[in-house]
Amino acid sequence: MLEDIEEILITEKEIKKKVKELGKKISKKYAGKELVLVSILRGGAFFLADLARNITIPVSIDFIAVSSYGTSTKSTGVVKLIKDLEESIENKDILVIEDIIDTGLTLRYLLKNLQARNPASLNVCALLDKSVRRIVEIPILFKGFDIPDVFVVGYGLDYDQKYRNLPFIGVLKPEVFLRKGE
Ligand code: 5GP
Q: What is the position in ligand 1's atom list of the atom closest to the CA of 150?
């Protein structure tokens, strides 16, 4: 697995430090509120698990799954809800925990869908922001890192369902895509 990585963009140590900082900020912002962390499967689950453990106020968690990428590295703009939340979010403070925002199309769909359920508030926490590729504007209340226009894997992010378990965020070697004919 490691032999497929061209470069480590964000180390495990840097991620840990950032997640701790984000946890602190979120705890402060939502003190006294009924906070629900909504994570987007599957990649977002890694970030959520670490972030939740760095939040010091009571939170509940819920999961939603959408498809936008399939196994390809290019966004199609077509988003489909595959798994819905288990609980109602009406009158609750919702923080969507996303691993990476690229074009923004996935989140635009999701935020519209969640807003229609009348939460008390609806905000976004994203670990990675690939803002140069943004097509639709997304308000990000909490952000981890800005990254350039490269395809990254690790810490929950996959390529063809692999590399999610890498503890860092890295860039794949171009030959890995060529192997698959992309
Ligand atoms: P968007 O709709 O913002 O273009 O795409 C968001 C989704 O695309 C992310 O949740 C993620 O699944 C996928 N994605 C976007 N950029 C990358 C990337 O660099 N690496 C990986 N592994 N997935 C990405």
A: 19
